[in-house]
Design brief:
Layout lengths: L1 H9 L8 E2 H7 L6 H9 L12 E2 L12 H10 L4 E2 L2 E2 L9
Parallel strand pairs: 1-2
Antiparallel strand pairs: 3-4
Helix pairs in contact: 2-3
């Protein structure tokens, strides 16, 4: 199932790092499915074991979160990820999974 592949890849993203919707899409062999990745994460029944708050936009912007952007930024901050002006620094982004 598509969502299960997304969750499996996302489990590989370590605490203190983030990845992008498109990186996950590429990792599961569906490079044009970034939006579908986002939809799967919005319905993530395995949180926090599958840490959907660790997924951001390609631009570095935080992006959406089922519990709100402020909560997402708070969770990332607890893990040591610095968010400035709604963007995550490049040093925290894992592009290849």
């Amino acid at each position: 199932m598509f969502a299960d592949l997304v969750y499996q890849v996302l489990r590989k993203v370590p605490r203190g790092k983030v990845t992008t919707y498109s990186a996950i899409a590429r990792a599961i062999g569906k490079p044009k499915a970034a939006r579908a990745v986002g939809n799967a994460l919005n319905k993530n029944p395995y949180a926090p074991q599958v840490p959907c708050h660790r997924v951001i936009k390609n631009s570095g912007e935080v992006g959406g979160f089922a519990h709100g952007t402020k909560k997402k930024i708070q969770l990332l901050g607890r893990e040591g990820v610095i968010v400035k002006n709604g963007r995550v620094g490049k040093e925290f982004i894992v592009k290849h999974l």
